[in-house]
Amino acid sequence: MTRDDIQKIIDEDINPGLAMHGGFISIHDFDEENRDLKLTMGGGCQGCASSSVSMTFAVERHLMEVFPEIREIEDVTDHLAGENPYYRPGQ
Fold first, then answer.
1. CATH number at residue 58
2. Residue 86 domain-assigned?
3. Residue 75: domain span
4. How many domains does the chain have?
5. pTM exceeds 0.90
6. Where would a tag sit more exposed on the chain, N or C end, judged by fewer CB atoms within 10 A?
7. Tell me: the pLDDT tens digits for 17-33?
8. Which residues contact 58 (CB under 8 A, 6 or more apart)?
9. What gap in Å lies between CA 56 and CA 60, rounded to an integer?
10. pLDDT digit string, tens, across residues 45-89
């Protein structure tokens, strides 16, 4: 399992669904030794009120099924920095 293997699954299995909402996910960092994966959400996913649900119940679940050797998946997105039509801080 390499960073490229994981990104391929993200690009082929996850991002097409997120693209329907104007979003995408990319790898921020992958520690191959510890098998820790850090992801960032962009586009319509950055700052979306449902982003944590999408990450936990769709993205993490799928990646852990395909790559059970991943130890931890963390969302490191700065959600407050995004310009997102679906979510505005303070609403």
1. 3.30.300.130
2. no
3. 3-81
4. 1
5. no
6. C
7. 888 888 899 999 999 99
8. 14, 17
9. 5
10. 887 778 888 888 889 999 999 999 999 999 998 877 766 545 444
